[in-house]
Specification:
Elements: E1 8-11, H1 14-37, H2 48-93, H3 100-120, H4 127-152, H5 166-174, H6 195-199, H7 205-222, H8 226-229, E2 233-234, E3 247-251, H9 252-277, H10 282-299
Length: about 300
């Protein structure tokens, strides 16, 4: 339908879309600059991450320190994946007809990935609690991998080793100083929240409701609900026979909302992770300032139509 004047209307400023796309790609450069200086995410001297590693070694030796490191590895993987999704959004924004539904789906992924990293990087956690959250993430992954393996082929052909065996993870847990409840749903008093519940607390009460609303909105499209699939349609009242012709309408505001939410979510996660690792806040703050200026400049102008 997009690009067909009979079915769709695209009311966006392509110059603005391309400027935002260019800025999104800079996130990859930003994160890369941090990783270059701290390639294994061990943290700089005096960081909370290094203090936790030393404490983990005292609590359970090298195996427990390795278990703690898994939490940091998952933060790394989550943020890396979120950056890839932002690069995909940038590519969509540069199309002659930006695809709002696709932008929404990618923004949803960035939100969830960023929120998981933010959850793992909570600065108030003890060493044991952070390690527990890492185990919770690995266990959830192992459960999903087992479902996939069982659904594809009992022998696992074509799936491969996509995660640690679930029982091996439980055995590893038993050898740690962590407390596990009888039903294995909480570790060290921690449980893994659902994505919606997590977004309701990310990144703070002042805007938590906004993030949860956006996540529910994006999910409505992702899950193919009638409400989600018709969000971008203008539907006039039906005629006497109940017939109507809907128009697929993409506006600048519909692109700006998901994109700005996604990029801010990722930046907040990077900020929290960086605090654990004692990364220099300067580059991130400079990036956010440029982002504010970009949107301020665009909002001061009247958005044109294609």
């Amino acid at each position: 339908m997009t690009g067909d004047g009979r079915w769709s209307m695209t009311e966006v400023d392509l110059g603005r879309c391309r400027a935002v796309a260019e800025h999104l790609r800079l996130v990859n450069v930003l994160l890369g600059s941090y990783v270059e200086k701290d390639p294994f995410w061990e943290g700089h001297a005096g960081s909370q991450a290094r203090k936790e590693a030393a404490e983990a070694r005292q609590l359970g030796g090298v195996p427990f320190e390795i278990a703690l490191r898994a939490s940091y590895s998952m933060m790394h993987l989550g943020l890396f994946s979120a950056v890839l999704h932002l690069k995909a959004i940038a590519a969509l924004l540069e199309l002659e007809d930006p695809l709002a539904d696709s932008v929404t789906l990618l923004a949803r992924a960035v939100l969830e990935l960023s929120a998981r990293a933010w959850w793992l990087a909570d600065p108030s956690l003890s060493t044991e609690q952070r390690t527990a959250r890492g185990f919770l993430e690995k266990i959830e992954s192992a459960k999903e991998a087992k479902k996939l393996k069982d659904a594809c082929d009992p022998s696992g052909n074509g799936v491969g080793e996509v995660a640690e065996p679930l029982e091996a993870l439980y055995d590893e847990l038993q050898s740690t100083p962590l407390s596990v409840n009888a039903t294995r749903t909480t570790i060290q008093g921690q449980h893994r929240p659902t994505a919606t519940a997590l977004l309701a607390s990310f990144p703070g009460n002042e805007i938590a409701a906004s993030h949860e609303r956006f996540f529910r909105l994006f999910s409505a499209t992702s899950h193919g609900t009638l409400y989600g699939l018709t969000l971008l349609f203008d539907v006039p009242p039906p005629d006497d026979m109940g017939k109507t012709t809907a128009t697929y309408r993409v506006t600048q505001a519909w692109l700006d909302g998901p994109v700005s939410t996604a990029i801010l979510a990722l930046c907040w996660a990077v900020q929290r992770v960086g605090a654990l690792l004692a990364w220099d806040e300067g580059p991130l703050n400079s990036y956010l300032e440029d982002l504010d200026n970009l949107y301020a400049e665009d909002e001061s102008q009247t958005s044109g139509s294609r």
